[in-house]
Structures are given as C-alpha cells and as structure tokens.
Specification:
The protein has two helices and 24 strands. By secondary structure, it is mainly β. It has one domain: Sandwich (Jelly Rolls). Strands 1, 13, 14, 17, 18, 19, 20, 21 and 22 form a nine-stranded antiparallel beta sheet that branches. It is globular. About 40% of the residues are buried.
Length: about 290
C-alpha cells in the first residue's frame, strides 16, 4: 500500500456569491482555475441570519457540469426550469447533473427568511467529460437518513458517505464518473487509512477544528491537495471535520465562464446563445414551499 502525501495546502478566501451571501472558497483561487475534475468548492457559513436577512441564489443557468449541494444547517428551497422543486434540510444532499442546461433557483425557506437562523453547507462543482456535456439533466435528492454512515471499530472516526465507499459502506448516489465525496468526523486520537483508486485526484478540505492529512496538519478553512498513491491516512489531533474528495481527471480542455463549463470557446458561446434565446427554459413560479 502506497500512502499519498500532501503536495499543497490552499487557504480558502472569502467572497460574495448568489444574491450576496459570503462563501469560504478554496477553489478556484489565485493562479489555480480548477483541480480536474473539481471546478469549485464553496462553503456557505456557518452564518446566523437575523429575521429578514437570509439570502440565496435566485434564477441562474448551468450547463456542462454537476452541482452537489450538501446542507449541514438551515434549509433551502429549490426549483428549476424542468419542473423539479423541493426542500433540502440539515444533512440532505442534492446531486444535480446540469448536463445540456437548466435554469435553477436555490433560496432559503420562507421560515428561515422570516425568522432568521443559522446556515451552513457546501456546494461543489464536478466537471463532466466532453461525451456527457449535453446529457439530459438529472437530480438525485437524498435525505440525511438515506445517506450511508460508518465508523471505525474504536468509534473515533465516523463518516457520512455521499459518493464512493469507505469502511465497508457504499454510497446510494450514482455518479457519471468515479467520485469520492465523504464527510469525516475525527475525534482526538482517530487514525484511519483508506484505500483509494490510484487514478483519482484526492483533496481534503477541513472545515471544523483541525486534522492531520497524511503527514501534514491542516486547519479549518484549508484544502490539502494529495499526490500519487493508493491510500489516504487521516488522523484526529484536537478533533476535526473534513470533506474527502476524489475523482478521476478528465484531462480535457476547460472553457468556463460563470455558470457554463464546456471544452471550447465555441461551445461556451453556444451555451450563452441557448440561454439567451430561452432554450434552457425558465422557472414557472409556484407558491413557495415551507
């Protein structure tokens, strides 16, 4: 077994997104557009909104990639131009394949907007290979209770599995390409070594406390980029929580602008034309969910 080592640590920066909410973003960052196949990692919050202050991401298009929304605290209403709508609460996941194109809206629930409250979550963008850029849009909404979980024998390391497999448990979400997406909680003294496909690029983003990834100490708000190998070692120091991400790189050109990610500038311009002429549809408004 060959353990991967950390080749780079990236500290997240803060910026405004959507309707004006602040995210902590390690990717993309200055001088680094993406880490194939991952295009974006956004951590929303944790933030506590006062009544009337909660904001989200109103109608916006996507084409050519997948968005993964993972809600830790708070609740979000979503609806789109294909007629999908629903609610994501604490621990819920939505894996949306935008594919050929969709107009999407993600907003705080009416209760959260009216009463305020704490919000924390992630949105991660996963690129699609050229052969799937124009695939039919697809949703996989999985409630917290439906996500597999596992723990080491000593109980010091626990994991919620969104994609991939760990400690004998396998995800229920199906991905177009091999992906790992796992939420690890590491108590002090935790020590777990995980086999992982050598073909995958592996990242670890610590968002609570601290953890040791391979031989490096990683603090909250830092993304560890790992090198070659077929296993990853995670250790709890003072206690921490992290997302472990892995994916097989596509090795293809990336042409991106805002909500569109294609392979060429011509495809990118076509995406804009299709959106502007209404070919991606529009959201038919309904009464807000509560």
């Amino acid at each position: 077994m060959s353990l991967r080592d950390v080749t780079r640590i990236i500290t997240a920066h803060r910026q405004l997104e959507g309707g004006g909410f602040v995210v902590r973003r390690p990717l993309p960052t200055a001088g680094l557009d993406h880490l194939d196949p991952f295009l974006l990692i956004d951590e929303l919050g944790p933030v506590t909104y006062a009544p009337g202050q909660a904001i989200g991401a109103p109608d916006h298009p996507h084409r050519g990639f997948e968005t993964v929304s993972y809600i830790l605290e708070g609740a979000v209403e979503h609806e789109d131009s294909a007629g999908h709508r629903g609610r994501l609460g604490p621990g819920d996941v939505q894996w949306m394949t935008a594919g050929a194109g969709i107009v999407h809206s993600e907003m705080p629930t009416a209760e959260l907007r009216e009463r305020g409250g704490r919000v924390h979550g992630f949105q991660i963008w996963v690129n699609l290979p050229a052969r799937l850029k124009l695939t039919r849009p697809r949703y996989q909404d999985v409630p917290a209770a439906g996500l597999p979980t596992a723990a080491t024998d000593d109980g010091l390391a626990r994991v919620t599995i969104i994609a991939g497999e760990a400690l004998g448990a396998r995800a229920v979400i199906e991905t177009h390409t091999p992906i790992v997406f796992q939420d690890w909680t590491l108590a002090s003294g935790a020590d777990v070594t995980l086999p992982i496909d050598r073909a995958q690029r592996v990242l670890a983003y610590v968002f609570e406390g601290a953890a040791r990834v391979a031989t490096r100490d990683v603090a909250a708000g830092q993304l560890a980029v790992l090198g070659d190998g077929d296993a990853v070692r995670l250790e709890g120091t003072t206690g921490g929580r992290l997302l472990l991400l892995g994916g097989v790189p596509h090795g293809e050109p990336v042409a991106r602008y805002g909500p569109f990610v294609m392979n060429t500038e011509q495809e990118l311009m076509q995406a804009f034309r299709d959106y502007q002429t209404g070919r991606m549809g529009e959201i038919t408004r309904t009464a807000r969910l509560s």
